[in-house]
Amino acid sequence: MATKVFMEALSPTMEEGRLVKWLKNEGDAVKSGEALAEVETDKAIMELVARGDGVLRKRLINEGDSAPVGTLAGVIATADENIDALIAGAGSPAPAAAAPAPEKVVAGQQETAGASSVPRSGEEAQAEASTPPQQKVADIPPAISGGAPRTPVAPAAPAGNAAPAKGDVRSSPLARRLASERGLDLNGVQGSGPNGRIIKRDIEAAAAAGAAAPRAAAAAAPSAPVIPREGDFHDEPLSSIRKTIARRLGESIGPIPTFYLTAEFDLTRVMEMRKAMAELGDEFKVSVNDVLLKATAVALSQHPEVNAHWLGDKIRYHNRVHLGMAVATADGLIVPVIWDADRKRMSEISREAKELAKRARERKLKPEEFTGSTFSVSNLGMFGIDQFTAIINPPEAGILAIGTSEEKLVVVNGESVVRNRVRVTMSCDHRIIDGAVGAKFLQTLRRLIENPLMLVY
Question: Is 234 assigned a catalytic role?
Fold first, then answer.
């Protein structure tokens, strides 16, 4: 019996997907759970997998084309089965297939009904099942100020039976994650899966033998856009992530009555604490941004009136702090989430923030890693920006914009001294946060930042 391959909802907010690359040709044999294509969602690039065994008889979406969720993308059947009727009815989208389970509320807290909509088979399924489940982490923010321009994506070459080019290696999501964690270059790993696909056991073997070369460190900032210079102008179709940013921006800046509060904090004691921690060993090294994330999370735990969501007919006050941190990528802005950030040590926040930022730039975040934030932070200090205002990520009540830290001549106890200072601006949804409420939150944040030992008790 023929199996229809639909454009599936591979993330909680996905409405359409762009088929980046087919991994199977027409006529190739496929098994259930095997990757058929790579699809760009509104947040990341994920794999579209087969839901049945047979032969990929027909590919109905071309590489580079976008299609709504539920559109028939292909047909799997036996080699001699008649599929004319299925192809003839491929014009209209079907109901969204295998969308991730919605968030539900239990005893006032959020939980995940299902971690992933993409099944795995055999060894991959067993390996992923053994991984500790991740907490559900809520929507991509609008274009929080300071996002980097998008890099146009070159059209992918047609999939074939020839060996993939360097940098274009067939591998499972689990294998890519393990390779990233162990610093392995997939180009140096021999795959033993279907059609030479690299799977978990290949990564483990390469790590044990030390055969793969270390991966190059990911760039700290997104690469500059590659824009053709021929002709008078160049039109580039919107990527899925850029469409989502534009839509969310309109949802935020238009209807939300926003006001802004700016304060300047003294970082002198933060710098002294960081120096003392670094002397204890590399595992205790933290950045100024790590300290600010921790301080923001602790302040939110003390001000639940700020750690809130606007839900139209009600306000939801969160008892847990899930802190979103804006990360600029070559394709736009995305906000990974640090769950229960107020309960984590600064060293834990530092490690998690680095890993999430790296995975965000590589477009490898899972849906549960970029959804569920209760408040967000955007830091452009590393770009030398003194001060800016960020756009609120609905349904959150506010966002904190952090500028660069710099030495300034200030007056302390009647004397002129040089101190390290930083400016922060809080964007507040006036439907939830009043001026005095936002000001009290910033007072608490100032106390924590200017007395950072309160963060490590």
Answer: no
DSSP structure string for 80-94: T---HHHHHT-SSPP
Predicted confidence (pLDDT) per residue in 276-308, tens digit: 998 888 888 899 999 999 999 999 999 999 999
Write down the catalytic residue from 303, 309, 322, 430.
Answer: 430
Superfamily of 241-455 according to CATH: Chloramphenicol acetyltransferase-like domain (3.30.559.10)
pTM of the predicted model as reported, rounded to 2 decimal places: 0.56
Third-level CATH fold of 173-209: Dihydrolipoamide Transferase (4.10.320)
Contacts of 332 (CB under 8 A, 6+ apart): 143, 147, 148, 150, 239, 241, 242, 245
- Whether the CA torsion 217, 146, 241, 392 is positive or negative: it is positive
The domain 3-129 having CATH identifier 2.60.40.10: the answer here is no
What residue spans define the domains of the chain? 3-129, 173-209, 241-455
pLDDT digits (tens, 9 = 90+) for 39-72: 988 777 888 999 989 999 999 999 988 889 899 9
